[in-house]
Automatic annotation (TrEMBL):
Keywords: Golgi apparatus, Lipid-binding, Membrane. InterPro entries: GPP34-like, GPP34-like_sf. This is GPP34 family phosphoprotein. It is found in: Golgi apparatus membrane. It is a peripheral membrane protein. It holds the Pfam family GPP34. Its main location: Golgi. It comes from Kibdelosporangium aridum. The keyword Membrane applies. GO terms for molecular function: phosphatidylinositol-4-phosphate binding.
Length: 216
């Protein structure tokens, strides 16, 4: 499972199979998660000037990361946010298909007003997701330290302002403060941390731009 798979599971409502209301820029955040995974594998990095660079052209085994690496190669030398739109194209469906094939989600087709077909992705087997949510809750309460799996997820959720929207937390104020600390912390290797920080900035920029366009 990739960070992008985990992020999709978190932002989907288990009952309705739709993106949880109020979650901003989920597709770009999942695209950012792909970059974070590529950085964690030592395949890409973000320079001190904030530019994408490919460290290895050896393709990963996962199709999602293979496509992601190919996109980064095209956008090498540019800022991460420039690649997010391209990375996000078709990504949600690709991740969903893999989760359906793995038995974690199921696909349901519905008709709106008897005319338009829509797909929903409710949970099929939520044991993996439940364990992940439990780990995230422990980290956000301060009972556990973030690791290479929980750290990027919390940082991306923080960038989306979605920590308290997608997680059931007993102390939301503490969780938000803890998420901010983790997003700014040094819990990961340098390459991964730089990628996460770049993704945060890119997602926040997208959210601000979308909000500004909607209000104009």
């Amino acid at each position: 499972m990739l960070t992008a798979h985990d992020l999709l599971l978190l932002v989907l409502d288990d009952e309705t199979g739709r993106i949880t209301p109020g979650v901003s820029e989920p597709d770009k955040a999942m695209a950012g998660a792909v970059l974070v995974d590529l950085a964690a594998r030592g395949l890409v990095d973000v320079t001190e000037q904030g530019r994408l660079v490919v460290l290895s052209a050896e393709p990963p085994t996962e199709p999602v990361l293979q496509r992601g690496l190919a996109v980064v190669e095209e956008y090498q030398g540019r800022k991460p946010e420039a690649a997010l739109g391209r990375l996000a194209k078709g990504l949600r469906d690709e991740l969903a298909n893999e989760l359906v094939d793995g038995g974690i989600l199921r696909r349901e087709e519905h008709k709106v007003m008897g005319l338009f077909r829509t797909n929903r992705l409710p949970a099929n087997n939520n044991s993996y997701e439940s364990e992940m949510r439990s780990r995230l809750s422990f980290v956000l309460s301060g009972e556990r330290q973030p690791d290479a799996r929980t750290g990027p997820l919390i940082a991306l959720l923080h960038a989306m302002d979605a920590v308290t929207k997608v997680l059931v937390l007993s102390d939301k104020k503490t969780a938000k403060r803890r998420a901010k600390e983790i997003a700014q912390g040094d819990w990961a290797a340098t390459a991964v941390r730089k990628a996460v920080q770049a993704m945060q900035a890119a997602v926040i920029t997208s959210v601000v731009a979308t909000s500004a366009a909607a209000s104009s």
